[in-house]
UniProtKB/TrEMBL annotation, chain A:
Compositional bias annotation for Basic residues: 228-239
Gene, per the UniProt record: SNAPC1
Source lineage: Eukaryota, Metazoa, Chordata, Craniata, Vertebrata
Highest taxon in the source lineage: Eukaryota
PANTHER family documented for this protein: SMALL NUCLEAR RNA ACTIVATING COMPLEX, POLYPEPTIDE 1, SNRNA-ACTIVATING PROTEIN COMPLEX SUBUNIT 1
Annotated region (Disordered), positions in chain: 225-260, 274-324
Protein name as annotated: snRNA-activating protein complex subunit 1 isoform X2
Signal sequence, start to end: none
UniProtKB/TrEMBL annotation, chain B:
Protein known as: snRNA-activating protein complex subunit 3
Family, as annotated: Belongs to the SNAPC3/SRD2 family.
Source organism, top-level taxon: Eukaryota
Positions of the UniProt region annotated as Disordered: 1-27
TM region(s), chain numbering: none
PANTHER family noted in UniProt: SNRNA-ACTIVATING PROTEIN COMPLEX SUBUNIT 3
Single GO MF annotation: RNA polymerase II cis-regulatory region sequence-specific DNA binding
InterPro entries the UniProt entry points to: snRNA-activating_su3 (IPR022042)
Keywords: DNA-binding, Nucleus, Transcription, Transcription regulation
GO cellular component, one term: nucleus
Subcellular location: Nucleus
């Protein structure tokens, strides 16, 4: 069949509205699902054959958003979407969700991440799907029949749901910057050592600008900040009224707001550090967790609190590296 | 077939199971060779083991019926299991059961018909479907499935969930099911671009010969010979001629890289295959079928669990049968050439019309013609 017309639009509408909600709670998703009456997507007197094909395509489509490179929030949304589609389908017996061997390990890791971060509702739902035997364990994600298509239909990845591919950050990691600084220092020292006048190196050895390294660092920092500002809307705190479990009163929310702005300013100086490539792993900067208030790993999520900090755009666990912090501040 | 089990052919025939070639990290992990087209070759049984290893100890592989009526199960017991698996409190587990219940997904009210599209829907899919329904209402007098659709659905679902009467015929947990497309040899011009095919499900533990035996091909039934003078000697009971697959046959035709081995010695589990890649099956000397294995997966509780029903056909191309030129009712069993009675050459007849037209009451041949028994490709519909 190919993807039925309109289905991609509907799924993406649902997922992007979920993304805007800035939440990973199933409760919020379910509210959205009901408001869109998404369960009715199977209505309309489809005959058996069409019902089967349509449902299969719907599950295949939703599954794509469940895997990398989509953001954490989208992946959780996709999990909820799969749960909804699987349980609301009209086929008897139910159409299954295909999972290929090469994706299973990633999915188990995702489930473990959910449990570790105490996103219990998402973990519960995945567990339930598994117990309900909703999965087919396959070799490849879809059936391959060597159909020579005139145009190769490549699955397009919706850019808005993806972590942006930041080549600048990937190229100039804090690791690279640190090494540059070391090399630069070493180079300066060498110049001193071999010069006649120990305090002032020879002018003839001035081959690069002294502040070259500082400039690069500033440019990269600016770029990072620009990126952050581009992605995240201004920090706003949502306080849900009438929640028994809500711990926020207005005073506290103000304090929290200030604390968060402070954290934001601090994080300007030492932002996301990309993980060094394998060849450089031995030089990977490490974190001193005690000092990080922007440490965003494993924030406990109380069920009703909408904590922006837990919803990192990157699927990876981001930890600010202490050493990185120091060297940015003191340069 | 290309790429049968590698390794020493001399060690075949013992119990059929071979050790996979030692892998350079994930050799048996299905990966695309050409994106979206086909995978690299991998060992079927080893692939199965990779999955089973990951799922062992959990309920994923089980083929038993789930405890009846999930709503009836002891919720306290369930909460304890949830708390244990997720590392949360019992209280949280109970809360999860409430918050994530299926009732939270219901979009229709109590009395609402699940088949009726709600009035003010924003869903694009439903908009499209609504327009289609409207179009059908306006243009079709009777809106129902055509024969081909009913046939296709029947094929797809006729064996689903079947359990064997004899429990010894039950498929084992962890068994692999391969989905195989077998293309018909091109007989008609219209099939040149999009070849019709049938899809069969076969078990990993089944021998190659079992699949071969289940392929119905008209070339098996062809009867050579001209029988206009002796129409009664044309074989009445067309029995399927046993095909003997000798890969050396293919060998002589220039596919030198094949190893000679006997199909009955190997199961699908023993093979190294590329999913999505076209293979060749030859029989009757020169009848060739392209075969593509489109999928391999673990058996599921909802599959047909009776192994005697495998290889199981789940999709078949509906071929229009050629009808008798005279009565237009029965499928043609004779074809004539140079026929003075026939308005066209070649011309097709059913048995009764053929005899009535070409022979007198005593059975004497009238006129001039050549007659050949005809087996219609649609015979197996």
């Amino acid at each position: 069949m190919g993807t039925p017309s309109g289905l991609k639009d509907d799924c993406e509408a649902l997922l992007s509205r979920f993304q805007e909600m800035d939440s990973v709670r199933f409760e919020d998703f379910a509210e959205l699902w009901r408001s869109m009456k998404f369960g009715t997507i199977f209505c309309g007197r489809m005959r058996n054959l069409e019902k089967n094909t349509f449902t299969k395509e719907a599950l295949t489509l939703a599954w794509r958003y469940f895997l990398p490179p989509y953001t954490f929030q989208i992946r959780v949304g996709a999990l909820y979407l799969l749960y909804g589609l699987y349980n609301m389908q009209l086929c008897q017996p139910k159409q299954k969700i295909r999972v290929a061997l090469k994706d299973w390990d990633e999915i188990l890791k995702f489930q473990q991440d959910l449990i570790n971060a105490q996103h219990f509702d998402a973990a519960y739902i995945f567990r339930k799907l598994r117990l309900d035997r909703a999965f087919h364990f396959t070799a490849m994600p879809k059936l391959l029949s060597y159909r020579m298509k005139k145009k190769m239909q490549r699955a397009e990845i919706t850019e808005e749901f993806k972590d942006p591919n930041d080549r600048v950050l990937k190229l100039i990691t804090s690791d690279v910057l640190e090494e540059m600084m070391n090399v630069h220092d070493h180079y300066q020292r060498m110049k001193h050592v071999i010069s006649a006048d120990k305090s002032n190196p020879e002018k003839s050895l001035d081959l690069i600008k002294d502040d070259f390294f500082d400039n690069i660092k500033n440019i990269v920092l600016e770029h990072q900040q620009w990126h952050k500002d581009r992605k995240k809307p201004p920090l706003k705190l949502k306080v849900k009224g009438g929640e028994e479990k809500s711990e926020r009163n207005s005073q506290q929310s103000e304090r929290c707001e200030r604390a968060e702005s402070l954290a934001k300013i601090k994080s300007k100086a030492f932002s996301v550090v990309a993980q060094a490539s394998k060849s450089r792993r031995h030089r990977q900067v490490k974190v001193d967790v005690s000092d990080s208030e922007s440490g965003q790993v494993q924030t406990k999520t109380t069920r009703k609190r909408k904590n922006k900090e837990t919803l990192k755009p990157a699927g990876k666990k981001v930890s600010s590296r202490d050493r990185g912090k120091q060297f940015f501040l003191c340069s | 077939m290309a790429e049968d089990s590698r390794g020493d052919p001399a060690c075949g025939g013992m119990d059929g199971r071979k050790d996979p070639v030692p892998s350079s990290g994930g050799f048996n992990f299905p990966e695309y060779e050409f994106p979206e087209l086909n995978t690299q070759a991998f060992h079927v049984a080893a692939f199965g083991e990779l999955w089973r290893g990951r799922l062992r100890g959990e309920e994923d592989l089980s083929l038993k019926d789930l405890p009846g009526g999930r709503e009836v199960t002891d919720s306290g017991c369930e909460d304890a299991a949830v708390a244990r698996d997720l590392g949360c409190s019992l209280e949280t587990a109970a809360e999860l059961r409430a918050v994530c219940g299926l009732d939270k997904l219901r979009c229709l009210e109590e009395g609402e018909d699940p088949e009726v599209i709600p009035e003010n829907t924003d869903l694009v899919t439903l908009g499209v479907r609504k327009r289609l329904l409207k179009h059908r209402e306006e243009t079709l007098r009777i809106d129902r499935a055509c024969r081909q659709e009913t046939f296709a659905y029947e094929m797809e679902s006729h064996a689903v969930g079947k359990k064997p009467e004899n429990s010894a015929d039950m498929i084992e947990e962890g068994e692999l099911i391969l989905s195989v497309n077998i293309f018909y040899p091109v007989i008609f011009h219209k099939h040149r671009e999009h070849k019709p095919y049938q899809t069969m499900l076969v078990l990993g533990s089944q021998k190659l010969t079992e699949l071969r035996d289940s392929i119905c091909c008209v070339s098996d039934l062809q009867i050579g010979g001209e029988f206009s003078n002796t129409p009664d000697q044309a074989p009445e009971n067309i029995s399927k001629v046993r095909t003997i697959i000798e890969w050396s046959e293919s060998h002589d035709r220039g596919y030198g890289k094949f190893q000679t081995a006997k199909m009955e010695d190997f199961t699908f589990n023993d093979l190294y295959i590329k999913v999505g890649f076209p293979y060749l099956y030859c029989h009757q000397g020169d009848c060739e079928h392209v075969v593509v294995i489109t999928d391999i997966r673990l058996v599921h509780h909802d599959d047909c669990l009776d192994k005697t029903l495998y290889p199981l056909i789940i999709k078949k191309h509906w071929l229009w049968t050629r009808k008798c030129f005279v009565c237009k009712m029965f499928t043609a069993r004779w074809v004539t050439n140079n026929d003075s009675f026939a308005p066209q050459d070649p011309c097709f007849f059913c048995d009764v019309c053929f005899r009535m037209l070409h022979y007198d009451a005593e059975g004497n041949k009238l006129g001039e013609f050549l007659a050949y028994p005809y087996v219609d490709p649609g015979t197996f519909n």
